[in-house]
Amino acid sequence: MRRRSLLALPAAAALSGCAPFVPPQTAALNAAPPADLPRHAERREVPFFPQTPYHCGPAALATVLAQAGFQADPEALGESVFLPAREGTLQVEMLSGARRQGALAVRLPGTLEALLREAVDGRPPVVLLNLGLSIAPRWHYAVLVGHDLDEREVILRSGTTERAAMILRTFEHTWARAGHWAFVVTRPGELPRSASEDDATQAALGFERVGAPAEGAKVWQSLLDRWPDRLVSLLGLGNTRYAAGDVPGAAQAFERAATLHDSAAAWNNLAQSRKRLGDVRGARAAAERAVARAQAAEPRWLDAAQATLAEMIR
Fold it and tell me: DSSP states of 91-123 as a string?
């Protein structure tokens, strides 16, 4: 299956294939562009790593990592994300490859406006394009670094071309044929302004699995700054603080989660934190509440809550 196998293409291929009609997002931008979006913007400082055959993924990933201030070596990245059997790089490998470098990798909404805004903000998105047909795909990663609404084109770091101009309608067609897939990388503690709550949460969960706990705490705090008091973010903040050795900070996050959401998981983790802090009475009270809540409405946490309570009464 070559659904996500990516081929390196000559620059000319990226510039061909004008569509007979204007796709909807391009039409909307042409007719009424957002007033606060510059008509022309280009991040000329974005690095360029010309790809070697089939390595458009590692080259694109190195580009955005370097722009965000991370060490970036396309050859080294290729060793971890390139799949020789597929002659390309899967999307999941692009995201996990960024996280392994210490970056937060966040999916973007499938809108042209989101791509253009992130590039203007200095966070050029990696885009997946299908430069072939739906029935005969030719996959390619590129990095969008600018746009010109007067010329109706976008500017890409693509393949072996440092500044590839692509007609906006052609770009939308090729991007749509790849499922409108795009992401940006940021440093922990920063969020792209276009990210949805769900995409930011998935990015934080992915980062927590491989990132340093203290950096993970920065990620969860940034989500709470934008979307306050969400249970998953409070639990994530507590868990990463606990893993980083900040037990008082973890207890604070778990207590807020328990108080606001009456969550069995939050009460259970609060009990563990209070025990570490020497608050035996408070730990037992939290463990008892965790068991009660699990019995009443959250049975999936019952075994863990009962085990925690058993520790408290030994």
Answer: HHHHHHHHHHTT-EEEE--S-HHHHHHHHHTT-
**pLDDT tens digits for range 70-92:** 989 999 999 889 888 788 899 99
Same domain, 84 and 201: no
254 in a domain, yes or no? yes
Residues of the chain with pLDDT under 50: 1-19
Does residue 2 belong to any structural domain of this protein? no
**Would you say residue 238 lies in a domain?**
yes
Sign of CA dihedral 76, 80, 86, 88: negative
Report the pLDDT value the prediction gives residue 20, as an integer from 0 to 100.
58
Residue 252 phi, psi (nearest 5): -60, -45
The predicted model scores a pTM of 0.90
For the chain, what is the domain count?
A: 2
